[in-house]
Amino acid sequence: MSHADWAVQDGAVVEQPRDVQRHPLLAAIYDSHDELIADYLPEGETLELAFGRHIHPRADVGTEAWRSNAVGVERPAVLGDARSLPFDDGVFDAVIGRRFLHHVPEADRADILQEANRILRPGGRVVLVEGTPGLYRRLTKGAAFHLGLLDDDNDRYGHLSEAAVTDLVRDSFAVVTKRTLGSPLMLASIARSPLAASLFPLYERTQCVKWWTFVVGRKPASDG
Ligand SMILES: C[S@@+](CC[C@H](N)C(=O)[O-])C[C@H]1O[C@@H](n2cnc3c(N)ncnc32)[C@H](O)[C@@H]1O
């Protein structure tokens, strides 16, 4: 089964991820994350970095390093690298980035937060969702590979711990909130059956099982 094309570009793993809308439970999970993220977005212009095939409804523009991801997104999309953004200083009020810091080498990750800080207005926010490493992730992903539900693993740089994501944000921003989001019920979230979506209430009850880290940072109002 093949759902994604991918390549390594200047060290970053770029790809066309699976189409979320074809996986009903995953689509419901993305919708719930969209709502959570919206609670933290200020008014104004929002950029989503590395949106893959799902851009936030409140995003005004997206940036992606994999050209074909812009097709069908129905939003202005700019081909670009999050480590060196093609935007002027201070032009956005919010920057969203989901599940992509682990696609760049560790040494490049601070550049992404510094670029987000540069293009934000004072008081602007960065909103990140990243996968957590750990035994549960290894076991569920291992099972999915074993069952042929996942392709080749391109996770070459490993996921960031909650502390690593928070520290990156803290280096350039004041931390507004940090929390863990729970289990995506991996096997069911990959399934395409509409029945899988009926597991959403169960997903909501398993928030104690760490799967994603959610961190929001605010750019200080002035440099002084
Ligand atoms: C796991 S996917 C996540 C996509 C989407 N954010 C989501 O949550 O469904 C990672 C995405 O990051 C993109 N990406 C990786 N490195 C990047 C970079 N340096 N600049 C911009 N996009 C990048 C890939 O092309 C891919 O679409």
Describe this entry's structure for a reader.
By secondary structure, this protein is an alpha/beta fold. The chain has a single domain (6-218), classed as Rossmann fold (3-Layer(aba) Sandwich), CATH 3.40.50.150. The chain is 29% helix and 24% strand. Strands 5-4-3-6-7-9-8 form a seven-stranded mixed β-sheet. Strand 1 (6-9) and strand 2 (12-15) form a beta hairpin. Helix 2 crosses helix 4. The structure holds S-adenosylmethionine.
Identify the overall geometry: globular
The CATH level-2 architecture is identified as 3-Layer(aba) Sandwich
Mean pLDDT: 92
User: Helical stretch count?
Assistant: 7
Question: What is the percentage of strand-forming residues?
Answer: 15-25%
* Helical fraction: 25-40%
Side by side, the strands of the main sheet go 5-4-3-6-7-9-8
Q: Care to count the β-strands?
A: 9
CATH topology: Rossmann fold
User: Which homologous superfamily in CATH is the superfamily?
Assistant: Vaccinia Virus protein VP39
From N to C, what is the helix and strand string? EEHEEEEHEHHEHHHE
**Unreliable stretches, pLDDT < 50, 5 or more residues?**
none
Q: What is the CATH top level name?
A: Alpha Beta
